[in-house]
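User: Hi! Is it possible to get a structure for several chains at once, not just one? Here's what I have:
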Amino acid sequence: MSALPTPLYEKVKHHVVARIRSGEWGPGARVLSEHELVRELKVSRMTANRAIRDLVHAGVLSRVAGLGTFVADLRAAGHSLQIRNIAADIRERGHEHRAEVVSLQRVEMSAEVRACLGLKVRSKYAFHSVVVHYENGVPLQVEDRYVNPEVAPDYLSVDLVATTAHEYLMRVAPLERVQHVVRAVAPQVCVARLLGLAADESVLLIERTTWSRAQPASFARLHHAGSRFELRGLFDI
Amino acid sequence: MSALPTPLYEKVKHHVVARIRSGEWGPGARVLSEHELVRELKVSRMTANRAIRDLVHAGVLSRVAGLGTFVADLRAAGHSLQIRNIAADIRERGHEHRAEVVSLQRVEMSAEVRACLGLKVRSKYAFHSVVVHYENGVPLQVEDRYVNPEVAPDYLSVDLVATTAHEYLMRVAPLERVQHVVRAVAPQVCVARLLGLAADESVLLIERTTWSRAQPASFARLHHAGSRFELRGLFDI
DNA sequence: CGAGAGGTCCTGTATATACAGGTTAGATGC
DNA sequence: GCATCTAACCTGTATATACAGGACCTCTCG
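Assistant: Yes, the chains can be modeled jointly so their relative placement is included. Here is the combined structure:
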């Protein structure tokens, strides 16, 4: 006949989630087995399996083979935040994004840079760029980046105003792995000047390391004015 | 015969990911269709479908019905960080966790609190607690929390040293939704004192709002010493 | 009385099959 | 030449079926 507005497995998920939301099943409680869902909701076992597998992936349930399916202990589960591309973020807000290149050069590979970029990098030098990103003319991020020349040998000739460094690196080298560390720090003097920070303003620092072709590709320190930047995350069961 | 060490769909995923990692398929490139995977790897279409669906969920691929499957544009994709339970985190590091209750009382529902907790809350008062969490005796987090009395009427009698407020709330009210906002701020005077902050030290502030039974349950400001706390995230294709 | 065997229920995986509906390109008709 | 219709291919969903292996309970045998 006509198409179903929502898939069956979504209805199964909804049915299970509703009984968790109602408080009928608290954390650790055993929920219906696949066979019980099959009987109760008149669906095939594969459909029930997919619904439950989705909820396990979402962190709502947890399973033990041979034992059963249980409401996950959300106390222990982490809730995720998203770190996104700053240029895309700004444009999605309908604002103007502009980048200004402060510096782009070849530098000696110091011990500190080598430690950040990964000890496996053999090269004697690295590429270093400092770019300031503006939202409607207001500085929002100072991007201080070291790039492994083995991964991006042409980095010095990239127009970092037209393309963000991250976009360029993604294009020339397949991204395998990204690590982020987020901290609140007091601003360095040069960063405070570039961001136009008030006297006691804090900086949200994101350190991002990327890997490509089994070696470190780039290490970036992204400094954000504390009063103008935030990370958001929503977990909705 | 004997059990397969790794599931078939994992091998299919690996096969696709390997060709992306090698650079053969860059962002936006079209990857093999399910039928092509079926022919190439001699698996059933359902198995190929599951492998691809997993990779879509992981953000590696994206699909358009009727068109095909494509390598996701990781530039646009956000990479997630995890916000976890501080007490569990500390204990997992093998360190001692201790909590100290600074204040626990009923307060008037001010306009500001009502705005934070959600305008739908009808109650004329709210519960307010301030708890300091210590890792091996060093203050790590100041937890400043407002609780909706309709969700947790017994909050004033909870032993916040034995149980964290978040754990208690999860137990008495099924968690439906959690929102996080992360910012870097200059410390308030009282927070600086409780955390024992250095003069120019910054604070990583996590604001967490939780919902239960279709209404806001709790609003918490989690203040962390910038020099002692960080959020980490790893994205591994 | 205790240990081991077997049965039952559970999850996990894999397959063949089927139909609905989106997208595109090429064939067909005006 | 242009618009339209159709066939081919794609994803998305749903089902029935099958077997492997883990966990647990019970029954039986020594």
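The two ends of chain B are 32 Å apart (CA to CA). Chain B touches chain A through 55 residues (CB under 8 Å).

User: Great, thank you!
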